[in-house]
Amino acid sequence: MKILFITSTRLGDAVLSTGLLAGLMERYPDARFTIACGPVVVPIFEHAPRVDKIIPMRKEKRAGHWRKLLRETIFTRWDLVVDLRGSATAWVLWTKKRHILRANHTDHRVLHNASVAGFEPARAPCVWPGEASRKDATALIPDGRQVLAIGPSAAWPSKMWPLERFVELVTRLTARGGPMEDAYVLISAGPNEREQCAPLLAAIPKDRQIIMIDKSGPESGELSLVAAAFERVRLYVGNDSGLMHLAAAAGAPTLGLFGPTSDKLYDPWGEKCVSVRGRSQEDIVAETGTGYFVANGMQDLTVDKVYEEACKLLTRT
User: Fold this and answer.
1) What is the structure's pLDDT at 194?
2) Taking the model in full, what pTM does it have?
3) Which distant-in-sequence residues (6+ apart) come within 8 Å of 219 by Cβ?
4) Domains, the chain, ranges and CATH?
5) Pairing of the two strands 80-83 and 98-100
6) Comparing C-alpha atoms, which of 39, 1, 3 is closest to residue 191?
7) Helix, strand, coil: what percent of the chain each, to 5?
8) Residue 219, pLDDT score
9) Quick one: which of 11, 169, 275, 278 is 20 to 30 A from 21 by CA?
């Protein structure tokens, strides 16, 4: 059985699609998979079981990336095509069955993805880092080492909690007598974000830093190592971002920080995950007209509130 799975170019949406992919693998135990995705997220899928081929879709002018995908897939007789991009490609290909996702949704993205193939309950997102990355992550974070992971970046400045508040949060959590006293601190961020993270790095003793910055750039296999490291952390706290979803999928207790984006649609998914916000998204949008291009939509979220939720999550997990 041959299945073509077309998923996102963005890290967060790609991670949220892994639950559906895992469900399809369980439903069709003899199937072989071809994955079409953005080049940034290739490492998310390259160690997944029964994936024979990954087609990186690098965006081109005049939809050239879709034409290339069509050329690579049109001569295959597929048993199933799953298209989470809602493109015309799935309608053109020869296949026995199609699952095509509609763009607009009012449910969480995990539930929305699951609905396209009739999965109820929805399968949780997951990671497949590969044995080599897991071995490297074990060397980086040995058994028994307590690690607090911080994700201070996001796709838009308006989604970023002020960095000085991350500094205060880390200081309080790891201080003597704190809930994560003397913990190592893992800083995860995307390409070209090291300078942005500098004040946070300066506040953490160098011998307790684990720096994972520039590990999620285009075609970076290091993203597998980040996923494997997240499997071993005690707590992840970060903005609404792809790395937040990766941490949740890896099973880390995850606290997502929200402001101008919808936690209803995109909060971290899993039993060990929670989200926290200051004002509601509706209030932010009502005041600014749009939540995405304001200077910062996270000013109402206090360190006290995040610290309280972090302590609750640590106790529960």
Assistant:
1) 81
2) 0.94
3) 39, 40, 42, 56
4) 2-115 (3.40.50.2000), 131-316 (3.40.50.2000)
5) parallel
6) 39
7) 40, 20, 40
8) 38
9) 275
